[in-house]
Structures are given as structure tokens and as C-alpha cells.
Amino acid sequence: MKFQIEDVTVYFPYDHIYPEQYSYMLDLKRALDAKGHCLLEMPTGTGKTIALLSLITSYALCKPSNPVKLLYCTRTVHEMEKTLAELRRLHKYQLDHLGPAARILAIGLSSRKNLCINPSVVTAENRDSVDAACRKLTASWVRALAAENPRVPTCEFFEGFEKAGSDGVLPPGVYTLQVIGMFVDFDGFVVFGYEFGDSVALDLRAFGKEKGWCPYFLARHMVQFANVVVYSYQYLLDPKVAGIISKEMQRESVVVFDEAHNIDNVCIEALSVSVRSQTLEGATRNLNKMSQEVERYAPIFNCYICRLVKLGRLFSFMGYSID
């Protein structure tokens, strides 16, 4: 359905809207007009995600001279996928009514573990292992060695993306993180990387395999050009991660924190350090060993220090200054 909220035409991909959704959109629209902050709450199951996406994307369509970039932060990968699924349906509805003028680029950015397509890397046990295996194949010093010695392993997908250069871009569309099997979409289409007319709804990993490009580094490159970016809180709140990923984001962005009551826990986690007991025990052993070595060589050091002091006094007595 299509309706007006003050001077904005809202495109909403369902036949009915709850009063709570309309009230939510109205408050959100006024917050955007004021370029301020807002804290909104809706009961579970009343469609806050689609209400928010519909209002913000419609707001951007109605004000093309002042483009709005949406950064949508979620807590989990599952919530990220749900948001992209809602956005995909909304995008199709907008294209049906507005044609190519409604085209956008929307991507979900996640960790290497969720986006990697290199078989030798993605099979690692956990996220840290995947990150480490990826860096062993893509680090600049590794690639420099590989240029001299072809037997040094590198990642074919990262190399393919690098070779693509300026052609390594995503066409407009809504890109999900991955497709788990096949399922039937809202409109009866079987989904496994498909097109809705002008709207591309692709699995980012499938696109990477088709092009021979690394989906992770492709997504990182495209976040600065995308109209909508869906990623986890850490990409914006963790200083270490935000300094790499989000520093190029335009200042005129609309930032949404879904399930915002989790922000404090995420901030605490981002600025905390976890140390295992085994690490502390190892550090204690090393300190004890160092202490023993210091005690062992202490008499020799003291002897040298005494000689240096005497030598210094002798030079002073002879009229030499020692700095």
C-alpha cells in the first residue's frame, strides 16, 4: 500500500498497517526532519523493522537532493538476514511503483566466517581461525613473496577481486549474506540468487563465486557506496573495528540500533579484555624464570656498576665531564 505521512509518500509492501506502525513512522519522520535523535519502542511482533525500513527508504526517495544513507545495526547474523529479507520485499514493491528510480544498493556485512568462499579457509573451526587463515593468504608480505615464488599459497578469490580493480563493484540490488538451501519467497518465487525484474536479490557468496571475487573484501569495499548497510553493532561501536570499516561513512547517515537495550553489553564487551588462566600461568612462569636469571647475574652486574662508578670519579678528578 501507498500513503502519505506529511510531505513523504510512504511505500509499504503489505495490504494493511497497524496503528502502532503508522504512529512509529510519524515520530520517526519528524526525527529525520529535525536531524535529531529518537528512542522508539514497539511491542514484539508488530512489524517495527518493515515500518522503519519503509519510512526511511521512502524519505530518501522523496528527497533525492539530500541523499540519506542508512546504517542498520543488529545484534546477531540471524537478525541481519531477517532485516535484509524485509528490505528485499520492500525494494521489489518500490520498483513496481517507481521503476529504475527506486534502485538501491543494500548489503549485509559480516565476518570472514560468514562470507568466505575459499574452501581451505572457511572450514576452520571458529571465527578467529578463519581470520588467521585468511590473513596468511592475503597479507601484503605474503603476496609479495608469492610474486617472487609461485609456490607460496595465496587466495584466488582475493587475487581475483584485486585484479578486477575499478570493475570490482556490486550492481544495484539487495544482497543477503548467504542462502541456506532453497526456500519459497513471499511472492512464490524459489530463491537461490534470483532477479525480480530490475531488482537483484542475490546471495553475496554466490555472486562472489560467480565472479571469482572475495565476498568479504567486496562487501567491505562497497559499504561506502551502498545506500543501506546492515551490520552488527561492533562495526560502529568497537573502536578497533570501526576505525577500519566505518571511518569512510558519510556524516549525513541515519543510524539505527535494533534491539538497542543490548548496546551497553556490546560496549562493555568491545572495551574489555579476556585473559585465560593458562595465559596468566604462563606469564607467571616466565616472570619467575626472568627473576632467577636476574638474581644469577646480579653479582656480575654489581661488579661492573662499581667499576663504572670508580671510573667516573677518576675522570671527574682529572677534570673531565661525563654526560
Automatic annotation (TrEMBL):
Gene Ontology CC: nucleus
Organism: Rhododendron griersonianum
Presence of keyword Mitochondrion: no
Record GO terms (molecular function): ATP binding; damaged DNA binding; DNA helicase activity; hydrolase activity, acting on acid anhydrides, in phosphorus-containing anhydrides
Organism taxonomic ancestry: Eukaryota, Viridiplantae, Streptophyta, Embryophyta, Tracheophyta
Record-annotated Helicase ATP-binding domain positions: 7-307
Designated name of the protein: Helicase ATP-binding domain-containing protein
Alphabetized UniProt keyword annotations: ATP-binding, Hydrolase, Nucleotide-binding
GO BP, sorted A to Z: DNA damage response; positive regulation of mitotic recombination; transcription by RNA polymerase II
